[in-house]
User: Fold these one by one.
Assistant:
Number 1:
Amino acid sequence: MTFTKSLLGGLLLSTFSTTTWAQNYFISDAKLVTNTSQGTIEKTDLIIRNGKVAEIGSDLAAPSNVEIIAADGRWVTPGLIAPFSRLGLMDIGGEDVTNDTSSEKSITSVSELASDSYNPKSVFVANTRRMGVTHAVISPSAAGDSIFGGTGAVVNLSGRYNSVEKPAAFVFVQLGENGTRRAGGSRAAALQQLRAALDDAGAYPTRYDGPEDGDALNRQDASALFKAARGQMPLMISANRAQDLLNIIKLKNEYGSLDIIILGAAEAWKIADELAAAKIKVMIDPHDNLPTSFDSVEARLDNIVLLDEAGVEYVITNASALGIQRPATLAQHAGNAVGNGLSWDKAFAAITATPAKWFGLPGGSISEGANATLVVWDGDPLNVTSAPTNMLIEGRRQSLTSRQTALRDRYNPTSDDTRLHKYR
Amino acid sequence: MIKILRMTLLGTTSLALLAACGDKTETKNEGKADKAPAFASTYAPQPSETTLITNARIIDGTGQELESGSVLIADGRISAIGTEVKGEASLTIDAGGKYVTPGIIDIHSHLGNYPTPSVHAHGDGNEVTSPITSEVYAEHGVWPQDPGFDEALQGGVTTLHILPGSANLFGGRGVTLRNIPARTVQAMKFPDAPYTLKMACGENPKRVYGNKGGPGSRMGNVAGYRKNWIKAQAYKKKRDKGGEDFSRDLQLETLADVLDGKILVQMHCYRADEMVQILDIAKEFDYKVTTFHHAVESYKIADILKESDTCSAMWADWYGFKMESYDGILENVPFVHAAGACAMIHSDDEKGIQRLNQEVAKTWAHGNRAGLNIPKAEAWKWLSTNPAKALGISDETGTLEVGKRADIVIWSADPFTTYARPEKVFLDGALMFDKENGLKPKSDFRLGYGE
């Protein structure tokens, strides 16, 4: 019965269809957010062919043999990119055996690849995808005595096997309170561990006659830090206190070519000009406004607005524990940046075009010839009441169902199914 | 998730406390029961003007929405509301068509007892020394200088309920507070609001006490509740009888007050099957579970919850951080509501409490997308009306009705959007937050920082 119902109507069909292989689509009457100089185009059509956006224009004729997605004036945007998460690295956060985010007792650090732990079948992948997120940056977290979490990756959220887009996208380091504790108990120790590691990687391989010849890193880890130590890969550092951020600027000056992204940066507004001058990028959670620790005593809601005014480059993230496990509410966080004074276009770019640029992803914008990675929404994507109705990743239709929607459908009070729940 | 971590951290330090202080909770009965209650509320409404809010789009919390109406506030209470309000006011506020709603009530908060900054010294929200700590009172761990209170006010929260944590089967007494910037917790206590008892199901008690004498399983949890209700029944019998040989026991006093219907049970419980077992225990010992908190699986047993008149306080989209929360769906609140059971939102979080309207907007939209047809004015009940009911204060607040406290929010836009912000927040008719002129409270902790 449910099956027949789901076949009625284009919208329902699309909602319940499973992932299909790349084919051609005609999207009609879209309010298209391009993230290019063309801005947002009202009432436009798109032709998707072979995974690419073949044509954009008003009143295009639908080619034959394409599936038609009627946007009916609603929003069509690039897919959202979660710039920081541990998606697919854990099933149940509280159950250690299902949690691969960190390795307390391993013999390696920087060289551990989050992509090796990534589980595309984690229910959180599909549950996050149905909220409009097509890609996520995934990061391991630091453990034991090391301030290094390891090497992070970028994945697409198709949920298919082999959905890692970039297995080695950045190296993750924790300073602030967490790194301080791991390094032995002081900020000085944490910063010195970082310097020693950068020196090891800078002198790799000549410094290493044996695997333990480094000051801070063994041979494998020094090798893994090689690119980031030379600015050929981002070095992502978590820190919040303004003075810690100034120390990171100093570090960048000492080492010259580092490509630094700071995660957290709750007090960044205090030194916005310095960050802009040093071309250090920041990942901001626009909900951060409490003195959660003595690292973020001066956190405030308009941090991102002040950074924007100073010309600092930023992305928006949900840095709460659950937001990291599954960045499904990324759009809400961007929406709240708008509520606090950032422009809609800038907030939206901070969860699409900007992270795409930082991590070298195709996507993040929509133009002719670009990858067809896009979402059709039933309303303003930054409004909490909106949700996707269709999604393509590189031209492939994505399912917007998940374990959550299966539970929803089984227990929906509008259902007239009287069978026992386990038979529904 | 954060709370679990805190509890684990606290485990070791509070054990030391127990060793130092002993577990002496019994005192001699003083005889007279009608003397002034301990830790009495000293809350006093701030002075307010007779205020008329006109040209307002009113969601009143009873399920009604007025496209254009007025609210008259006199002596801190709502004295008139509707499309044709007459009355003299010394202050008139033209809302300019903006939304006006009741103040938000958060039934599950740890502000003050897990305050920011989250240093070890601030972990006063859970007495993790025994699975039975019904003798402790959340209010004794509340630090009124928690900066989170100030931010919650700016999110439209006018009343909030602070509970002990969930490590224990019986965690202790919860307290309902007015969100008034104050120096003492007594000055925040909601006058005449009933006490509550925090209880907890499932994973937390058995995890925390599994290696400390139990409970170590859900079986042990249930046995623990029952053994103590039996003790409470015997204690109540003695107390009812009175006389020389009766002596007070703080631990059992709280439970006996539950049996007397004076204290409302607020129970942390995730799984549907477990909630139904708890309802059976309540039948066995003839008490009432007022609200299940977190209640991630309430949607699976909404019909049973309706029948037992038990409320559910839920998140819009928190789930999956532990096994018992794995089956969370985005439609939990509207599904419970649609079954005719009492549903509400809650935060359990110092950031979430600042935007509970967005959490309701989210889950409301998901519910309607799943085929329900709930109007906004009906969904608003999840923010103030139902929490007031579940806290036993609905005669005083939770809706905009004549005679109630004038706890009112004027919004910059439709509160069912991401972009809306409270512009003015009234507590008992007194303006406590005003975005326009920068009026807002600032905790002592924040002095000397910033700028």
Number 2:
Amino acid sequence: MSRQDALVSADWAEQNLDAQNTVFVEVDEDTTAYDGGHIPGAVKLDWKTELQDQVRRDFVDKAGFEKLLSSKGIGNDDTVILYGGNNNWFAAYAYWYFKLYGHDAVKLLDGGRKKWELDGRKLDTEVPQRAQTSYTAKEQDTSIRAFRDEVVNAIGTKNLVDVRSPDEFSGKLLAPAHLPQEQAQRGGHIPSALNVPWSKAANEDGTFKSDDELRKLYEDEGLDSSRPTIAYCRIGERSSHSWFALHELLGETDVKNYDGSWTEYGSLIGVPVELGDGKSS
Amino acid sequence: MCSAPEQTAELPAGTDLTKESVLVGKVTSGGSPVGGAYVRLLDGTGEFTAEVVASATGDYRFYAAPGTWTVRALSRSGNGQTEVAVGGPGLFTNEVQVA
């Protein structure tokens, strides 16, 4: 993977809104943002009601993903351009999710909704009508998805990258500072994890930093490129952003996203938890 | 939950100001509210902590902790920032002027 394969610029997007076999998809933290105006022609994906199983805590299964993409009018031959608010958190999550089900032709709009809006580019409220397709997904590629037992076994052996803010890492906060404090039973982080906040990989306008800046960032924080890496955050969306930087932009080969993240780990009984900034030991 | 909470001047039910440190404020330009700005909360070292989109009336809200914070707004009318010192639990009201 490289930057050209994984990212498109806002300029490119603006010139390719009507390109053949190209579908723009908005995925937001604020699921109402789309309704107030979106990139012309873009369809909406709701990460909470459409990508999550509504009973169990897990993703929709293969058949569910096939049904969803078919109903959105996305075909196997389409290139999907994902974008969203909050510096592409949920768009990166959807990117990882599309890869998980084997859709290779997927790219992220660099800067997402924020850059598009701040640039004053056109937004539209018209909801496009796309003909139903017959989408076929692959089995989940678990080489990019980590589960809890693997994470516990990775302590002290693999790179664990906690991409939450320093206050969440240390155990002072349980959620990002724009959300009410709730969720996992305990605060803190997985022992041996490095704290490299996702935000360090992004510029102020939401675009990704350059490959050189990204490489230096992870090297300076002590990431050992010879070992496999597992990224996590609170619910797996910010760590998708860092997974994207490590796996798709820098081309690190063995990088997984732990989507259970802190809301799962911080509620497990009997697992080790570390407090503090992780730098004193 | 992780759906972006609506940014209103009124605090959501259940907010306990004896325990939580809540920063609320408005983005303005020339005295008028600026809606839809991207408002970023940076910690005492300048590190990004959170970001919200201000409401149509320019309102934003953060749940912080004691410390010194910078609230920085990016908008089509320009950018601006302000510093806020949080000493403990309670409501901290501020304003960011963009130009």
Number 3:
Amino acid sequence: MSEKLISKIPEGTLSEKWTKHKAQIRVVSPANKRKLEVIVVGTGLGGASAAAALGELGYNVKVFCISDSPRRAHSIAAQGGINAAKNYPNDNDSVYRLFYDTIKGGDYRSREANVYRLAEVSNLIIDQCVAQGVPFAREYGGLLDNRSFGGSQVSRTFYARGQTGQQLLLGAYAALNRQIELGSVKSYVRHEMLDLVMIDGEAKGILARNLVTGEIERHGAHAVVIATGGYGNVFFLSTNAMNSNGSAAWQCYKKGAFFGNPSFAQIHPTCIPVHGEQQSKLTLMSESLRNDGRIWVPKKMEDVVKLREKKIKASQIPEEDRDYYLERRYPAFGNLVPRDVASRAAKERCDAGFGVNETGLAVFLDFKTAIERLGKKVIEERYGNLFQMYEKITDVNPYDEPMMIYPAIHYTMGGLWVDYNLQTTIPGLYAIGEANFSDHGGNRLGASALMQGLADGYFILPYTIGDYLAGKIQVKKTDTNHPAFEEAEKNIKERLDKLFNIKGKQPVDHFHKKLGHIMWDYVGMARNEAGLKRAIEEIRALREEFWKDLFVPGENNEFNQELEKAVRVADFLEMGELMAMDALTRKESCGGHFREEMQTEEGETLRDDENYMYVSTWEYTGYGKEPIKHKEPLQYEFIKIATRNYKD
Amino acid sequence: MDFTLKVWRQKSAKDKGRFATYKVQNISPDTSFLEMMDILNDQLVREGADPVSVEKGCKSEGPVAFDHDCREGICGMCSLYINGRAHGPDDDITTCQLHMRKFKDGETITIEPWRSAGMPVIKDLVVDRQALDKILQAGGYVSVNTGGIPDANTIPIPRDDAEESMDAAACVGCGACIATCKNGSAMLFVAARVSSLALLPQGKVEAARRAKAMVARMDDLGFGACTNTRACEMECPKDISVAHIARLNREFLKAKIKD
């Protein structure tokens, strides 16, 4: 184990750790906070909440986003809800149960202490959001309503129709706006971080490109927080927004921050299927739909054939000829099994030939039973906007005919490695939300991403970063004329020039799509040794082709979206290789990481706890060189390790 | 399907701008409008990369710049005036949710940026919407700090109020209401936020102050006045009602009377 991999997990029993830790870490006085600067990159739930909370505390904050407003960050698209252990429905939920479900859902590949803390602060988030005016769904008595999500047998998910992420982000964005008005936070929109600047081994600032003018700007600080989300777009087609990318985190990795569990990507079972080669992205249909929707394919192959030939409609297939395969295979959890399990089950049926559309890559999500039981009005209240969204895309009315869905890349559990303080292996560099690796292990449960983003941003980072900054109160503002900034700027300019100077024939998307195909075929829902080795070779070859045959039009000193894409795809072409390497060296199946060599007779994941109960963390050693893999062993002191069972 | 596209090209804010005409072919009706734009841009980039056509004097203007991100109708990043309508010829959607099946084969489609004094063009179809952030910064929040908040269920809120608040909170901040308004007014945008918060007990405390501050900021930033044409409501992709403007006016009057 590298001496840098110190998780700093506090001593004591699980429920005491965070309380004790908070008591022991240092704080910064209000007078000193005014002297300290913090850069936050990204304005999703993690970044916006962190920037707002740090501003409220009195730090000088600079916040950066690539869009035209902080509110565009992709947290906005989260639909279903946010978990918290309030136990309002009186169904015997508790902090411990939320913690346990999350560890189990992650297939025992996350840190106990971090996950317990997440469950512990979950309740504060709901209080905070309500105080901000987030219009959560309510019962007639005026109290908050809850619904169920996958991987849990209690109802602990708070929601605002199918727009929970939007409402939570608007809450955090509002808190951020208040700080911007008060002058504690300065906002930089349409700015993209292109490099991390380090002085004497510590994070001291960033270089950002002004996306409107093309100018490279230097920004110094006492600490830098990365909140730029995940790297799911390495697959080209994903549920991520078009501009979501992993470049900020990747620059940090190349500056020495270790990358944790890069191969852990989540495939969401309920997305609208791919329609053709021209498709630019995939649209998610919220997991909340599995509360009332039932997933099935026909039992008889003749019905499948007729469906594909459009000779019959799904609604014409009688009940007894439908295979509700999740209810059949997992009676205890039924349609609400975790995402990785539901995705693989869909793939299993489609591989067996039962896919219901022309491509054979789709299953049904049906509301017939729910509409009969509850009436159309109730279903409309619960999911109206999702049904509308589905109809606009597919031209099919889901009140009459079942939705067609198929798994797609949705979230990355992997990310920058962080300790208990959310600090990376670089002092002064923090990573929060999806950008870090910390809480979800091999698979994230639904409605937990919003919880983690806000937990990190509102209630964890503002405390833990104080411990670092307390040691910096005598340190002057970072001088952006320092040679480290000079050099970083020179390197960036060379890199951008290099992209323009290739003057090849192919647009960026050509390479991105090709990369996506390699990733989906070999590093997607099912992985094996031969395929992963092949993926690594193909990615390397594609990268070479990219640097020979790319064409970037226009110039650097202007608004240039092709250039933006080129910078990101250049990084994706490196990231994809690391993901494949990580998947190759984890010869077990766990959560969303399914190695075909390692499965039970029933096709479930087969973990190898003896050899792989660790976080794989990767250290960069230079372009084209093999990175070094370090292991952070996972110790389970409080939970009894078991095989994940959603059957009974 | 084949289309002729008349697209607004403008190099920068200072440039005058003009329409350019392009053709796209073999577009599937299931393709989204922005995917069709991707196809156009792929063509334009390839043209610029082709040494033969460049030698022949072809000066490709490069791809068309347009804003987009989530492509599922929620981030509010996409815009576009398509055939004279904000977000194009379909109701209750953003441009990214528009599909080519809504057009006729062979049709000529005119594509323009939002046009409003408050939202100047940055390049081609991309406009600067920072004014919207600035309006919200003036007061579009409940002034609470993080932490020290009582349990969420200590404030019961009538279900209908929460639902109506949610109706207004659905605003994605795209700016279609402003682009559509003949006066370039941002009233529906401001009203959505003011009304959403005023409907909740948490937001009531500073409702009047909020209304006053946000309206003043809107005026300062050069947005026009509301003359009740209701065009904003017609084109709002989230179907936000002008009834919220009435609530904004009430809160605004309350504040003014107190002055």
Number 4:
Amino acid sequence: MPHRGTLKTATGFAISPGRRSRSRLGEAFIHKLLVACALVSILTTVGIVVMLVAQSVGFFRQVSILEFFTGTKWTPLFAPPNFGVLPLVSGTLLTAGIAILVALPVGLASAIYLSEYAREGVRRVLKPFLEILAGIPTVVYGYFALTFITPLLQKVFPSLIIFNALSAGLVMGIMIIPMVSSLSEDAMIAVPRSLRNAAYGLGATRFEVATRVVMPAATSGIVAACILALSRAVGETMIVAIAAGSTPRLTLNPLESIQTMTAYIVQISLGETPHGTVEYYTIFAVGLLLFIMTMLMNLFGQWFVRRYREKY
Amino acid sequence: MRDGQVFQQHLKLRKFRGSVFGLIFLASTMVGTLVLIVLIVDVLRDSLGWLDWQFLTSYPSRKPEEAGLLSALFGTLWVMVFTALFSFPIGIGTAIYLEEYAPDNRLKRLIQTNINNLAGVPSIVYGLLGLSLFVQALALGRSILAGALTLTLMSLPVIIIAAQEAIRSVPGTHRLGAFALGASKWQVVRNIVLPSSFPGIFTGTILAMSRAIGEAAPMIAIAALVYLTFIPISPLDRFTVLPIQIFNWVSRPQADFQHLAAAGIIVLLVVLLSMNAIAIILRNRYQKRTEE
């Protein structure tokens, strides 16, 4: 009963005018303080954009934008250096693509199971496992990819080298299953019961209701879940830094060693590169590109949900 | 008659297809659980014989048998305390502002959209922000403070969203009741809204923190790969954290270091699990109290 005391204070305080004006000042101060808290998030975005652009300017003063976007070699540490970002982009898309190929069918199937098939008790047991899976640090997944999945894959592909895109992509896919699953499940649960009941009334089986009624009605949410999960995979860092290698290569062969944009930033950051060198600026140029890519995907995902949501 | 037979046959097929896919869906749901079990068993097996008192109380070393993670463990604890100190008040303050104070206008929508987008920014980008803002521009150096501020910015969106959900779940009638008795806005927030949304806020905040603590990428941008043989004693000292130390060991080719990495992972998971356990225990206790 914590409320009763409060109300007494409120009454007591209305009687005394002196306390009231002082307290009005206090209210105004608290309001300002809360606005200041909210501004931190705006400032963070401004900070990210300003910092990435300002530092990238230092890079683009020395390297032409055309070379950055069309060059097919990324060798900033060699002489002569090459600054074509395409190999890093292809590495990023390759691992993220493999991850989505794993996470989409598995995540979607488990979302259907959890929202259409599972009884409440089963749900309550299974959901925490997915939540734990989502909470495992990515460095642990990286370790798992390198020391468990890669040796396993080498039994299938004997020529597979230790660092490869396939192993990193597969584990990354497992990492984003919970995200695909819970976002799609939310979309499916939002489909009204009446639609399901109507289909059952016409004699549809559970499977038919799930795939022909619920899934089409939840399409916008499912597509958004995929886009957001893809964005997460593109920005994922430690798994690829540990298991995918550090050889930027313009290839879509999953058995090769590659380097992603994020893994490159980690590689350079490890060495405490001196401030002001081209090498130091490269990580910001790559970071800016990464930020723009993920931001566009996130905005598109959010827009897609708003635009195509079925209204009931 | 014939039509009926065809229908019956078709129905059997449809039901069969339904149960086959039902099994496939169930199997897919089990994939996550299965991987989780395999992962934990794999790490436990690899760390066997390496996780001991000496490992917890030694500094990193070139010799695997003498190496430990004392400095990384203390670094993680330091960063955790400071991140909590900064991110709790700012995160809860923002959530209170958005849910209780902000008029429903453009600015509010802008802040809200912005927070949703910030939650999707890759963690390594926060590392770059921290590197150029805290390490360089504010000249904090590669210190615990710079690391904690970076993690604060990274975990804020998640904390704000969790706190908002908790605050939203407080029934509007409670607020109106208090207002009717003459309470001011802040009195309503402090005495009505916060006490009943506290369990939700607290759980969300701790979960966000445990995510942040497990992140290696932004910390690598701030702390770099450092060979620390002392326990940091001031917030301006250099530091390393568990995920970086684990990454360092994983990246070495020798098998012994892989065992050290596995042992480090167990320590990290224990730290994270105990944070989650504390969150759950506190939530249950407070929930009981507010239900009384």
